[in-house]
UniProtKB/TrEMBL annotation:
<dbReference type="Pfam" id="PF00009">
    <property type="entry name" value="GTP_EFTU"/>
</dbReference>
<dbReference type="InterPro" id="IPR025662">
    <property type="entry name" value="Sigma_54_int_dom_ATP-bd_1"/>
</dbReference>
<feature type="coiled-coil region">
    <location>
        <begin position="244"/>
        <end position="306"/>
    </location>
</feature>
<dbReference type="InterPro" id="IPR027417">
    <property type="entry name" value="P-loop_NTPase"/>
</dbReference>
<keyword id="KW-0175">Coiled coil</keyword>
<protein>
    <recommendedName>
        <fullName>Tr-type G domain-containing protein</fullName>
    </recommendedName>
</protein>
<feature type="domain" description="Tr-type G">
    <location>
        <begin position="32"/>
        <end position="118"/>
    </location>
</feature>
<dbReference type="InterPro" id="IPR000795">
    <property type="entry name" value="T_Tr_GTP-bd_dom"/>
</dbReference>
C-alpha cells in the first residue's frame, strides 16, 4: 500500500491479520514480536544491522548488512524501505518493516519503524505514528517495545521531548512492563542520557541496555590498519554482541501481551477525530444557515419597511354634493332630474295639490312656456316642500396599485417569517447535534485515558482546531463568524478542561 505526501512515496508494510490462536502458536514455536520506537537518527536501523550480524554470524571484517548505510551496501537480500542513506537530514526509514531472525527453535520478529520528530514536520510524525501503531496492532501479540535513544544526549532536546510525548500518547499502559530501552552510541560508563526524562514511565534496570554501535560509522579501511583503533573497534563489537545476547535473553523472559489495546486506542482516536470533523462540518452548516438567516432578516426588514410605506393605500378627498332637505316653501320638483327646478320659492296653495288643477296648470305652462329649463315638460314636475342644499363631504377611496404592492409585501413577509422560523429550528437542531458530539468526544477521551494514561488530547485535536479557526476567518458575516468563534471556543474549553484533568491525574 502506498501513500503520496509532500512529493515522497511512503510504502506501508501490511502484515497478515493476526490469527486468534497466535498467542498459543508463539508459545509453541517460541516466536517473539518486538517493535522499535525512536526519534529520527536514534539508531534503530543500526540496531537492526547489529541484530543481523548477531543472528547471521557476522564479524567486523565480514559485516552482514540488512539495511544499507552510508559506508556499506546491503548483503543479506532483506527487504528494506530506507531512502537515500547519504542524506541524514531526514529519517531514512519510510515504513514499518519486519525483520525475522531465527536461532535454534526461536524466531525473533523485529519491526523497524519510521523515526519520530522528523524534519518534515508534525504531519509526517502523525503519519508515522499511525503506521507504527498499526504495525503493533497487526502483530497480534507483542513481546516488547524497544525505545531506541541516543545515549550521548545530556539533556532532553526539543525533538526528544516531542518524540517522548508522541510515544507516551501512543503506547497503552498495559505494555509499560514490556518497555525496553536501548541507549545507542554509548556504554554503561559513557552514557549521558538521564532515564528520568522518561518519567512517568519507570524502566526496570534489567530492561536497559547500552550499545556503542560504531562499527557502521566508518568504513573498514579507516581502522583496519590502525592497531589502536582496531583494538577499540573489536572491543566495542564484542561488547555489543554480548549486549544483544543479553537483550534476546531478556526478551524471552518478558512474556507477550495481546495488542487489542492498540486496536481500541486506534478506534477511540479515530472516533474522536471523526466527531471533531463532524463538529467542524456542523459549524460550517451553522455558518451557512446563519448567513442565510441574516440575509432573510435583512430582507424582512426591507419588506417591513415596504409594508409600512404602502399601508396607506386608502386616500380621502373633499367633495361637494347637493342634498334635498325639507323646506317651508313649495318648489317645482322634477321627477326625472330629482331636483327642484324652481329656485324662487312660492307660497304653498291648496290648488296645487289637486290633481285636476295641477294638470290644467301644467298644460297651460306647456302651451305657453314649453319645457322647463331642466329640459323636461311640466308634466314631469310637481310641487313639494323640498330645497337643494350644497354640502361638502369626505370621500375614502383605495389606490389599487398601492394596495397590490402592500398585499404582495404582506405575503412575502409571511413567507420569510416562516423561513426564518425554519432556519432557527435547523440551527437549534445542529446545535443539539453539536452537543451530542461533544459529549461523545468527552466519553471517548476518558476511555482513552483508561487505555493510555499519558494520552495527549491537545496533540490529537490541534490539527482540526487549526482548520476550524482558519475556515472561520473566511466568513464574511459578522454574526456567522461570531457564532463560529463561540463554538470553536467551546471546543477549546473542552480541550482545556480535559487537559487540566490530565495534569491533575
Amino acid at each position: 500500500m502506498s501513500f503520496i505526501n509532500n512529493k515522497h512515496i511512503f510504502t506501508v508494510f501490511v502484515m497478515e491479520t493476526p490469527n486468534p490462536l497466535l498467542s498459543w502458536k508463539q508459545d509453541l514455536h517460541k516466536e517473539y514480536n518486538i517493535i522499535l520506537f525512536g526519534e529520527t537518527g536514534s539508531g534503530k536501523s543500526t540496531l537492526i544491522n547489529y541484530l543481523t550480524n548477531y543472528f547471521h554470524n557476522g564479524t567486523l571484517e565480514n559485516l552482514k548488512i540488512a539495511i544499507p548505510t552510508k559506508h556499506y551496501e546491503a548483503t543479506e537480500g532483506l527487504q528494506h524501505p530506507d531512502d537515500n542513506v547519504q542524506d541524514s537530514s531526514n529519517g531514512q526509514t519510510r515504513a514499518c518493516t519486519e525483520y525475522n531472525f531465527k536461532k535454534e527453535d526461536t524466531t525473533f520478529n523485529f519491526i523497524d519503524t519510521p523515526g519520530l520528530s522528523d524534519s518534515r514536520g508534525a504531519a509526517q510524525d502523525d503519519f508515522n505514528i499511525q503506521q507504527i501503531m498499526g504495525a503493533a496492532e497487526q502483530s497480534g501479540v507483542l513481546t516488547a517495545i524497544i525505545l531506541v535513544i541516543n545515549g550521548t544526549q545530556t539533556r532532553a532536546t526539543v525533538t526528544l521531548r516531542n518524540t517522548l510525548c508522541l510515544l507516551r500518547s501512543s503506547i497503552p499502559d498495559v505494555f509499560q512492563q514490556n518497555l525496553v530501552v536501548v541507549l545507542t552510541n554509548c556504554s554503561a560508563v559513557t552514557v549521558n542520557f538521564d532515564l528520568a526524562h522518561l518519567e512517568p514511565w519507570t524502566i526496570a534496570g534489567t530492561n536497559v541496555f547500552h550499545m556503542n554501535n560504531c562499527a557502521f560509522s566508518r568504513p573498514v579501511s579507516q581502522w583496519i590498519n590502525n592497531e589502536r583503533m582496531k583494538k577499540a573497534m573489536e572491543h566495542e563489537w564484542q561488547c555489543s554482541m554480548e549486549t544483544i545476547e543479553e537483550l534476546t535473553q531478556n526478551l524471552k523472559q518478558l512474556g507477550g501481551k495481546a495488542t487489542e489495546a492498540f486496536k481500541q486506542m486506534r478506534l477511540k482516536k479515530n472516533l474522536i477525530k471523526s466527531q471533531l470533523h463532524g463538529i467542524f462540518l456542523e459549524v460550517k452548516k451553522i455558518q451557512d444557515l446563519q448567513n442565510e438567516l441574516d440575509f432573510m432578516k435583512t430582507t424582512q426588514q426591507n419588506i417591513s419597511a415596504d409594508i409600512e410605506k404602502y399601508s396607506d393605500y386608502k386616500r380621502t378627498r373633499q367633495v361637494e354634493y347637493t342634498e334635498l332637505e325639507r323646506s317651508i316653501f313649495v318648489r317645482k320638483f322634477c321627477v326625472v332630474c330629482l331636483t327642484p327646478c324652481q329656485d324662487i320659492p312660492s307660497s304653498f296653495s291648496l290648488p296645487h295639490t289637486i290633481p285636476f288643477y295641477r294638470d290644467v296648470t301644467n298644460l297651460v305652462e306647456y302651451i305657453f312656456r314649453g319645457k322647463c329649463h331642466c329640459g323636461h315638460t311640466p308634466f314631469s314636475h310637481y310641487d313639494c316642500k323640498l330645497q337643494s342644499v350644497m354640502k361638502t363631504g369626505t370621500v375614502e377611496e383605495i389606490v389599487q396599485d398601492v394596495k397590490e404592492t402592500y398585499d404582495d409585501s404582506v405575503s412575502k413577509n409571511k413567507a420569510i417569517q416562516s423561513k426564518i422560523g425554519s432556519l432557527d429550528t435547523d440551527i437549534a437542531v445542529l446545535g443539539y447535534v453539536f452537543d451530542l458530539k461533544e459529549a461523545e468526544i468527552r466519553e471517548c477521551y476518558h476511555e482513552l485515558k483508561k487505555l493510555c494514561s499519558q494520552f495527549n488530547f491537545v496533540h490529537e485535536v490541534q490539527g482540526i482546531m487549526d482548520d476550524m479557526e482558519r475556515d472561520a476567518r473566511t466568513l464574511a458575516s459578522i454574526a456567522a463568524r461570531t457564532d463560529a468563534e463561540n463554538r470553536i471556543r467551546s471546543i477549546k474549553q473542552l480541550v482545556d478542561t480535559l487537559s487540566k484533568a490530565e495534569m491533575s491525574d
